[in-house]
């Protein structure tokens, strides 16, 4: 699957508004970070990429990791909550969404 959104460094709130365009920046950021923190494999990879909770700017690698685990924000309409962590054939666990 080709990504419509090409990652680059951006504020958490900017990325959050791509996933939750109807939200305010604060609400969208809270919702996005709830998704991120509920996905242990994503959190492990983000921390390995230098992420820390108080960080306001996400580096392009961190944005890429979020998109890989949560899906392309451009293709989400409307966004749905993460249900559970399910195995993906031959790969590590990725956070799956109810669509």
Task: Please sum up the structure shown.
Helices cover 41% and strands 15% of the residues. With 99 residues, the protein is of the alpha+beta class.
Task: Describe, in plain words, how this protein is organized in 3D.
The protein has 4 helices and 4 strands; from the N terminus they run E-H-H-H-E-H-E-E. A hairpin with a 5-residue loop joins strand 3 and strand 4. Helix 1 packs across helix 2 and helix 3 runs antiparallel to helix 4. The two termini are 16 Å apart.
Notable traits:
single chain, 99 residues, alpha+beta, two-stranded antiparallel ribbon
Indicate the structural class. alpha+beta
Q: What percent of residues are in strands?
A: 15-25%
CA radius of gyration is: 13 Å
Please tally the β strands and state the result: 4
Major β-sheet profile: 2 strands, antiparallel
From the structure provided, what is the oligomeric state, counting identical versus distinct chains? single chain
**Count of runs of 4 or more consecutive helical residues:** 4
Which helices and strands, and how do they pair?
Layout: E1 10-11, H1 12-19, H2 25-37, H3 40-48, E2 57-58, H4 60-70, E3 82-87, E4 93-97
Antiparallel strand pairs: 1-2, 3-4
């Amino acid at each position: 699957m080709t990504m419509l959104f090409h990652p680059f460094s951006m504020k958490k709130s900017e990325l959050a508004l791509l996933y939750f365009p109807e939200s305010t920046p604060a609400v969208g950021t809270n919702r996005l970070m709830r998704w991120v923190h509920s996905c242990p494999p994503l959190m492990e990879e983000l921390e390995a990429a230098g992420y820390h909770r108080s960080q306001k700017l996400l580096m392009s690698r961190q944005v890429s990791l979020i998109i890989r685990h949560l899906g392309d924000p451009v293709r989400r309409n409307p966004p749905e909550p993460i249900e559970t962590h399910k195995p993906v054939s031959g790969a590590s666990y990725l956070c799956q969404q109810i669509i």
